[in-house]
């Protein structure tokens, strides 16, 4: 006789437990059915409909408050205030702006508005979506209703309620050749009784959006019990007011149930359900119960099947584990005997796999070392590990971590680069098994794909990677350089150099970019022109922040018009930063306090758009100018005396001798003091001061060139034009067009010339 011990997880207990579960499920259903039907189903249906009408009321009230808030802003619109005082439709500019504002409000389809009407108390004047007009003409010919004529709209000027809703009525819109049924909602402002604003609510759209019921009879009444809206043609019974005493309740009248609730706006919302509808609801619940019965029967069958499968599956799983040599295959069984056998087999297979994986990992690391050595042109006896006997594609990824990344994410850049490398490697290895991905630089990842297939599949995979990184472009901008050319094994170094050159073609577009074409970059000047550099240094030395930023922004604007790649913006920013710090050091300023937790060069690498570069320069140059200005505030009183005199008399015919005589100094002493205190000699400072004043006049006035020259101390216009062009890099007339009309460059990117002696 065979004996065995009964354990909790033995096969016998599991089978027995499965059949008992089937019995318990059927028994539970019977108990549930008995308990449920012992309750009153109709009470649950009534409770549901009461909650339904309360939700509808809340949606209506919220919508009215949103409309009220939207319209309330119009009362404080300066143009509306001006029109309420003048009430004159001939004020075309404010009227057109108000009409445009009304149309913008009506364009919001979620407000369910057909029109916004402003009725002014003076001159019988009205403005709506059609424009300005007289009240009698607007509401008798343009926007007409049988219930709301001109007398109604003018009469509302005498109303006192801040919010008043009127019954729905049909309106005909003549200019738009359409009609509809709307409810007028009058919104008044006690602080401005010179006008009121009314809106036409599309009651039908509101009903369809806010109410859901098996019976479509829905009504809206005001605080006095007057009917404002009904969704059907069926009238409400008379004398309902004495039944609407509670805030929210229901009552039965004839063969219908009336569910109502009073909203915060004073309106009463009522939903009517017939006895037949309630019976249908009860029937629906019975169907649900029948479905539960069917589900219970199905679950019973399923449990029986699961128990049977629970015996077969572990055995099958153990066999598959041995055949596939896969120790990670899980055995979904709660039977102790099966788990014991499976764990032993998994241990043997895992040991074998670990040994194999360790060998493969060491081989891969040696291959990576070989490719890095080949990339850096380092000779090594192990270079034969870099298997270059196959044709390959080379892809280079350049990562630009934005300022937002450094400010908001608690991830080290090295960690972020590693995670990106792992994702790129996984994405490409899935499609191309013979792939090597390694980190060439701190911000560069290189992938070598060994294949002789066409490049189309690889391009699709790269576009997919680009799409993933595009979703995180606020934190990292990825540049992918891939020339769809199959390289020969000996062309590794040339392929890498081409990819690095292609990365430099990236545009400053704030998005991930896939570059497929190599375009040799033309050599062009990056940075300041000589005249701009002198002007930049002079304004920085003078502590003129606005002028310094203006020069930088002009250079950025010129690069934007040339559609320069991002690398040129970075080079320019680094050059301008270096010149600024060199100038500050030459002026013996302590620049250590200018840097926060990051150097300016790290901030430059994080710039992803022209706006980022502008913000960088505004912050960096602002700190630089602040150093200069603090030094100026602590300057010698003799310096301030000299500068104050020049600022008052720069438009006169002045010289070092005349100024020294006026200030009771000798010319030699003044020249020495001026150079020591300002870093510039007397004539350089006067010329820079006059040119700055001339630029301000050219930008802010319509004075002729001759008049501008005289007002800054030049009485020979040709001398003025030559000095201006030497300082600013372009003639005064072209400077005015650049700064007042934005067209300071021709199609070829060169400044246009102006001959000395011309005055515009």
TrEMBL record:
Transmembrane intervals: 12-37, 287-311
InterPro entries: Homeodomain-like_sf, HTH_AraC, HTH_AraC-typ_CS, Tscrpt_reg_AraC-type_HTH
Chain spans, region Disordered: 737-760
Domain HTH araC/xylS-type residues, every copy: 640-738
Keywords: DNA-binding, Membrane, Transcription, Transcription regulation, Transmembrane, Transmembrane helix
Keyword Disulfide bond: no
One Pfam family matching this protein: HTH_18
Protein name from the UniProt record: Helix-turn-helix transcriptional regulator
């Amino acid at each position: 006789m065979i004996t065995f011990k009964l354990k909790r997880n033995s096969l016998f207990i599991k089978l027995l437990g499965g059949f008992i579960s089937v019995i318990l499920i059927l028994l539970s259903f019977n108990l549930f059915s008995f308990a449920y039907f012992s309750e009153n189903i109709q009470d649950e249906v009534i409770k549901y409909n009461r909650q339904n009408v309360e939700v509808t009321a809340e949606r209506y009230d919220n919508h009215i408050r949103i409309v009220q808030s939207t319209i309330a802003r119009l009362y404080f619109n300066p143009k509306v205030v001006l029109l309420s005082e003048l009430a004159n439709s001939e004020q075309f500019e404010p009227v057109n702006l108000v009409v445009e504002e009304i149309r913008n409000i009506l364009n919001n389809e979620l407000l369910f508005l057909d029109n916004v009407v402003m009725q002014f108390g003076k001159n019988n004047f009205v403005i709506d979506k059609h424009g300005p007009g007289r009240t009698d003409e607007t509401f008798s010919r343009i926007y007409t209703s049988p219930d709301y004529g001109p007398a109604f709209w003018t009469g509302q000027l005498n109303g006192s309620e801040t919010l008043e809703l009127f019954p729905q009525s049909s309106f005909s819109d003549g200019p738009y050749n359409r009609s509809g049924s709307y409810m007028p909602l009058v919104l008044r402002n006690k602080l401005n009784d010179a006008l009121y604003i009314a809106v036409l609510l599309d009651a039908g759209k509101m009903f369809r959006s806010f109410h859901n019921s098996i019976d479509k009879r829905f009504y809206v009444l005001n605080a006095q019990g007057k009917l404002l809206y009904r969704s059907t043609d069926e009238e409400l019974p008379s004398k309902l007011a004495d039944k609407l005493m509670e805030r929210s309740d229901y009552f039965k009248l004839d063969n219908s149930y009336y569910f109502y609730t009073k909203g915060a706006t004073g309106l009463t919302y009522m939903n009517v359900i017939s006895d037949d509808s309630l019976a249908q609801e009860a029937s629906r619940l019975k169907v649900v119960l029948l479905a539960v019965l069917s589900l219970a029967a199905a679950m019973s069958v399923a449990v029986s099947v699961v128990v049977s499968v629970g015996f077969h599956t572990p055995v099958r799983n153990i066999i598959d584990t041995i055949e596939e040599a896969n120790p990670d295959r899980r055995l979904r069984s709660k039977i102790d005997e099966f788990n014991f056998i499976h764990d032993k087999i998994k241990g043997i297979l895992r040991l074998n796999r670990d040994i194999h994986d360790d060998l493969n990992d060491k081989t891969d690391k040696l291959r990576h070392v070989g490719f890095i050595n080949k990339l850096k042109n380092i000779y090594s006896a192990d270079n034969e590990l870099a298997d270059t006997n196959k044709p390959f594609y080379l892809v280079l990824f350049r990562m630009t971590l934005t300022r937002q990344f450094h400010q908001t994410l608690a991830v080290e850049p090295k960690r972020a680069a590693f995670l990106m490398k792992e994702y790129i490697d996984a994405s490409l290895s899935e499609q191309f098994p013979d792939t090597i991905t390694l980190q060439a630089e701190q911000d560069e990842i290189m992938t070598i794909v060994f294949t002789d297939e066409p490049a189309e599949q690889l391009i699709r995979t790269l576009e997919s990677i680009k799409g993933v990184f595009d979703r995180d472009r606020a934190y990292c901008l990825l540049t992918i350089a891939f020339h769809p050319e199959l390289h020969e094994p000996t062309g590794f170094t040339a392929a890498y150099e081409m990819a690095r050159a292609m990365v430099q073609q990236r545009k400053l577009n704030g998005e991930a970019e896939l570059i497929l074409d190599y375009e040799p970059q033309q050599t062009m000047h990056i940075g300041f022109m000589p005249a701009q550099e002198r002007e930049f240094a002079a304004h920085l030395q003078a502590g003129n922040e606005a002028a310094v930023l203006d020069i930088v922004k002009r250079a950025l604007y010129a690069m934007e018009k040339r559609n320069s790649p991002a690398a040129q913006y970075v080079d320019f920013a680094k050059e301008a930063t270096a010149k600024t710090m060199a100038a500050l050091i030459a002026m013996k300023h302590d620049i250590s306090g200018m840097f926060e937790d990051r150097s300016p060069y790290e901030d430059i690498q994080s710039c992803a758009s022209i706006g980022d570069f502008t913000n960088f320069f505004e912050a960096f140059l602002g700190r630089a100018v602040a150093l200069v200005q603090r030094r100026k505030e602590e300057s010698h009183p003799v310096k301030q005396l000299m500068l104050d005199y020049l600022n008052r008399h720069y438009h006169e015919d002045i010289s070092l001798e005349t100024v020294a005589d006026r200030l009771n100094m000798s010319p030699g002493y003044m020249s020495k003091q001026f150079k020591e205190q300002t870093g510039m000699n007397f004539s350089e400072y006067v010329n820079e001061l006059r040119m700055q004043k001339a630029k301000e006049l050219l930008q802010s006035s319509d004075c002729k060139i001759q008049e501008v020259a005289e007002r800054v101390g030049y009485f020979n216009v040709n001398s003025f034009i030559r000095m201006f062009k030497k300082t600013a890099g372009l003639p005064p007339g072209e400077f005015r067009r650049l700064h007042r009309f934005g067209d300071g460059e021709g199609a070829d990117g060169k400044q246009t010339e102006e001959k000395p002696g011309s005055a515009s």
